[in-house]
Amino acid sequence: MFGIQPRDLIDDFNPRRRRWSLWTTPPASMPTTSHNIRYRVPRKGHANAYHLSVKFEDLCGFMVEGNVDDVNVLNEVRERMREQGRVWWALEASKGANWYLQPRISSNGGEGMMRVTSLKLSVLTNSVTLKRLIRKGVPPALRPKVWLSVSGAAKKRSTVPETYYDELIRATEGKTTPATHQIDHDLPRTFPCHPWLNSEEGQASLRRVLVGYSFRDSEVGYCQGLNYVAALLLLVMKTEEDAFWMLAVLLENVLVSDCYTDTLTGCHVEQRVFKDLLAKNCPRIAAHLEAMGFDVSLVATEWFLCLFSKTLPSETTLRVWDVLFNEGAKVLFHVALAIFKMREDDLLRIQHIGDVIDVLQTTAHHLYEPDELLTFAFDKIGSMTTNTITKERKKQETVVMAELDQRTRRLNSLKMDA
User: Fold this and answer.
1) pLDDT over 90 for what percent of the chain?
2) With contact defined as beta carbons under 8 Å apart, do 225 and 306 qualify?
3) What is the per-residue pLDDT for 387?
4) Cα 115 to the chain's mean position, in Å?
């Protein structure tokens, strides 16, 4: 894969994809397959083509429903991805195939990281270049290797025997736990619009990854939401073992701890942090929603548990994950704030909670333009450092733990009374 001539990365990613004009229907001789856009008959009175409802396959193989405008945006995104791919291939030719496989950089050092002051200029230059490139998007053909490197997953895997994953899966065969019961219940509901994930083979592969991790970390076990994250990782990484290690590094290093435990402590902490960040970065929206009695966790809980995989179009989600694996969990706050900020004017006019949810969900589902979202996330939202987020988490963790303790005492009291 590496060190070869630049090529059409999108066609590599989906070699069976055919191109044809968006403004003409497929020829009658063209077979109706999942790789062709299938126009629905427009409803009576719909003369504007941009309002036509269409079913089409997105860049990751999901069958989705949108409008012609969404399809046009996807075509533009596809072309930009080709151009971005040529940049990556050119850098591989000039810097070497593995130029981005480097230690992660920290201003104050840390486990597995190097201090800025100890770095050679060439390494520091590569790091700055890599950050800029990743924000513009990692080509699909390079995502597995880049993600494994920048996330720390490759280093994590290197600390155990090469047979670790295979032995783990063999050890779980035939074993039944509450986690396996829940996984089996959730498998058919995990992205049924994707033909492979909805197949027997796909579900068996996803099950092995989820069950394997539930045995690796029995404290986490399995939590609803992980099925969507692991499924998308499988589509990107191509192999179960790579997807497993990406899931491991997410839960153990990238995200806040206890996000997926029984109490969801970490998720509660993130919701409180997000609410405070919304008040600081979007004060008018926060004040308006508070006056309405709208709790941001009504939408943000799914965003943080599923890492936007159920919310944003798949390619936009992967662009968010490109940055997430390189820059850390603060990226989730940037993106969540951006979705609110993009619809500030509309949200300020709304007077009903249900309308708020509808606007945010509709906006997110049609964000087929990743650059628009990421521009808002990093250019229109104030800067947030990892240290700032960490301090805010510690403050909110005290409150959350006190609330959970009070809830436990109340439940125990009710049991005793019963």
Assistant:
1) 59
2) yes
3) 85
4) 28
Q: Closest Cα to residue 318, out of 77, 7, 36?
A: 77
Q: Which residue has the tokens 């997430």?
A: 324
Integer Cα distance of 285 and 274 in angstroms: 13
Predicted local distance difference test score (pLDDT) of residue 172? 96
Residue-wise pLDDT for 182-195, tens only, equals 999 999 999 999 99
For residue range 44-64, list pLDDT tens digits in order.
344 454 467 888 888 889 988
pLDDT of 418 reads 63
β-pairing verdict for 63-67 and 53-57: antiparallel
Which bin fits 62, alpha (ψ -120 to 50), beta or left (φ > 0)? beta
pLDDT of res. 102: 60
Nearest to 273 by CA among 382, 374, 400: 400
Note every long-range contact of 287-292, with CB atoms under 8 Å and residues 24 or more positions apart, other chains counting: 288/347, 288/348, 289/347, 289/356, 292/350, 292/351, 292/352, 292/353, 292/356
pLDDT of residue 122: 60
Residue 196, number of CB atoms within 10 A of its CB: 15
- Residue from 190, 255, 193 nearest 220 by CA: 255
- Asked if 251 and 214 touch (Cβ cutoff 8 Å), the reply is no
pTM: 0.82
Q: 281 pLDDT exceeds 50?
A: yes
Place of tokens 């979705």: 339
3-state secondary structure the chain: CCCCCCCCHHHHHCCCCCCCCCCCCCCCCCCCCCCCCEECCCCCCCCCHHHCEEEEECCCCCEEEEEHHHHHHHHHHHHHHHHHHHHHHHHHHHHCCCCCCCCEEECCCCCCEEEHHHCCHHHHHHHHHHHHHHHHCCCCCCHHHHHHHHHCHHHHHHCCCCCHHHHHHHHHCCCCCHHHHHHHHHHHHCCCCCCCCCCHHHHHHHHHHHHHHHHHCCCCCCCCCHHHHHHHHHHHHCCHHHHHHHHHHHHHHHCCCCCCCCCCHHHHHHHHHHHHHHHHHCHHHHHHHHHHCCCCHHHHHHHHHHCCCCCCCHHHHHHHHHHHHHHCCHHHHHHHHHHHHHCHHHHHHCCCHHHHHHHHHHHHHCCCCHHHHHHHHHHHCCCCCHHHHHHHHHHHHHHHHHHHHHHHHHHHHHHHHC
Checking DSSP bridges between strand 104-106 and strand 63-67, what pairing results, if any? unpaired
